[in-house]
Amino acid sequence: MASARALRIDFGLAIHGGVGTLTPAALTPELEAEYRAALERSLRAGFGALRSGGSALDATVEAVGVMEDSPLFNAGRGSNFDERGVITMDASIMDGSTGAAGAVAHVATVRSPVRLARLVMDQSPHVLLVGEGAEHFARVHGVKEEDAAYFYTDRRWDALQVAKAEAGARPNVLGDSDGDESVEASPSEAPDPTSRSGTVGAVALDGAGRLAAATSTGGMANKTWGRVGDSPIIGAGTFASHRCAVSCTGWGEHFITNAVAHDVHARMEHADEGLAAAVRGIVFERLHRKVPGSGGLVALDADGNVELSFNTRGMYRGWIGEDGSPNVAIYAE
Amino acid sequence: MASARALRIDFGLAIHGGVGTLTPAALTPELEAEYRAALERSLRAGFGALRSGGSALDATVEAVGVMEDSPLFNAGRGSNFDERGVITMDASIMDGSTGAAGAVAHVATVRSPVRLARLVMDQSPHVLLVGEGAEHFARVHGVKEEDAAYFYTDRRWDALQVAKAEAGARPNVLGDSDGDESVEASPSEAPDPTSRSGTVGAVALDGAGRLAAATSTGGMANKTWGRVGDSPIIGAGTFASHRCAVSCTGWGEHFITNAVAHDVHARMEHADEGLAAAVRGIVFERLHRKVPGSGGLVALDADGNVELSFNTRGMYRGWIGEDGSPNVAIYAE
Q1: How many interface pairs between A and B have CB atoms less than 8 angstroms apart?
Q2: Can you tell me the distance from the alpha carbon of A221 to that of A164, in angstroms, rounded to the nearest whole number?
Q3: Cβ separation of B228 and A266 shorter than 8 Å?
Q4: Given this structure, which CATH class describes domain A2-331?
């Protein structure tokens, strides 16, 4: 369980690449270096959007898009397989300055679900499109699609086999997180514990004071056909307003029933809490008390305060401020 | 715009059957009588569950199930058609006493989506299943399915043709509600303005003090293939806790981006507001200011206070307390 030290930026962004039982012993030095490099690329892409006059919304799309395109993270390329051995993905985005949002769930062909979520926000009167209807919408709008081979990685396929073997031994009750202490695998069994779970996300604040949040995921390994977690649910995995922007990662079902992303906003709006208190109240008190090791989130407020908080052993994460220098971390500090 | 007078019950339930530009001139006396009778049947079914020892959760399922089975309401039998002429339905349920929830979205074959949502809650580790995966889950658990003819009604088919004709003249930006004053049809054009929209829902309080909420819908007429509104979204269309139970109906996209159902809870929890103030704050102030005529909700708190509130011209609604006598209403009072 860890919270970053107090951070403040004038403009910039914060990202996450999923939570899990991440300890220095759980990652090889090579894999750790790859993750750090990918997180830095994501931060630089988001910052590049801001520096070239893009909005907070643009920054979240660029940052999340880099992690979707990387096979390291469970989103876009490199997503988890469901119980059928099929990849289905979910994403959402929200513009805090307008209150507009877009989301897609259970899409299998779209290279960048977060870009499709933005298209739903910009080009349809709706917030959420699911399944083949969402893919039809993508084709009508000329969105880049890929075949199943593009999304495939040996690592996630192996994770499915492990998850299936374990599901035979006990009911599969894990969501996006494998932070439940009782099922932590030893490093020798699972060199990267997040290979079975994970979500990516970004929150951004631009020079005009606008906030935005975006989240994307392939869901949990061996998930039930049709299962959708919190990532495409506005108010659960993603929320943005004039007060704050929040993107979550963790055991999706608990993030839905606790409306985690909206609760950060609600604590600030209705209880006049600051960002740090609001995040602490939901991540460390409410969620952790109910479900230890259930996940984490990144959040920004309109004053540029940054929170990267998780009740698991680690979270792939990073932030970048107006100096353009990326900061990344994986383990609890 | 109307709010019921202050009501309090020891145990019982409140229901809604959708909002719209409902005025006495908009319904024939025969149709109005049919609606009133169906609302009473729904209330008696829910009350019967409570009286026979059932939980608040049981009561919401029975009450919503009656409205799903009635061709009058836009849920289950009699649901709206999407742009393809296909019926797809959404539902959700939440148990305030445990915080557990279940939901299904974009299902086409299930007779009672609210019963399937409860099954997801009770028999799966997940909260939300969508599309064919949800239907597969239903078949595995022996849930009653129907063919397309069962769900078909001439009335909704005609509503689709009207919606398609209007969509040719202007962008289709309406959600579950047709409460936007600028597009109100005259009675001669649309004998029942809610034939194009609507959602059904129930909230209940049992003798043990438990709260529950459930919501079910066929979505808007002529909706985009794959569009999902607020009804299956925990925190948007449905929420229940130890404090309150809320079921919403209205322009779904705005209920999602404002996390309406969770916001009622959040105002009570974080701002220490009573139920009436919390409901007023979101329905009449926040929502109505942003989107006039956007919808309404029914809500109960742990003390048995009842709210049936809407910022449209009417809402099919009712409540029943410990005396077992149903009370129903349609128009603003």
Answers
A1: 166
A2: 9
A3: no
A4: alpha beta
